[in-house]
Amino acid sequence: MSRAEALPGPAGRRTSPLWTFGLLRSELVTTLRRWRTLALLAVLAAVPVLVGIAVRIETRGGSRAGGGGEGPAFMAQITNNGLFLVFTALAATLPFFLPMAVGVVAGDAIAGEAGAGTLRYLLVAPAGRTRLLLVKYATVMAFCLLATLVVAVSALAVGALLFPLGDLTTISGTSITFAEGLGRALLIALAVAASLVGIAALGLFVSTLTNSGIAAMATTVGLLITVQILDQIPQLHALRPYFFSHYWLSFADLMREPVYWDDLVRNLGLQALYAAVFGSAAWARFTTKDISA
Question: For residue 16, is pLDDT > 80?
């Protein structure tokens, strides 16, 4: 039985908001049950563990973690406060691991269904192509948030086990309470998740161009790597502010007192622009695509 047939309600009610919620729930459950998705989340959860253990070993060896400006942002402060492991882990995973995981899920969203022969059955439901595309994008966005929280929660647990917790010092040198630090950590996690909106839309668009999930995933990850490389070339300084990854690390400004909002707002605006452009392109392609699988 296909997922479309398994959804509740008569065919006449399958365009209602309740049925749309059922379709979204079905997509979320299907995505999270895939071994590939679970493996990606396991890798993301392991990154803070490895960073925390490495810092702990280095500290016991008499060295200062992150000395000489090496390592991800905030690494030098981890030994003083385990909460900084959350910020360090997000800084370490955002350039590649998090967007790669999102790119894999987004690239497989439509192309994977087409390759497995289930896309046609989902459309017969009838969900409608626009509604199905929106549900797929909402599923990818939910994965963005889940993946980010997996990193943050894993880092918080490891930081609490290996290092002391308490009041922490911001980048500006001011002191905030541990409760305020947890609030900043939550805001940073949300900012990181929002930073993945652009790559999610790009991956969904690529997914509508092919019936091969592997090809769509590889193309999305390849584009991610290409943009990351281009963003490091000084000669492209005029274009770099328009690359979706350019302001990713602006979340560090949430650890200033007062918070610097300029780059954070630029990042959110840039992600919204990518979502609008590539979301519209995905809709234009998907609604006119000849679907035979």
Answer: no
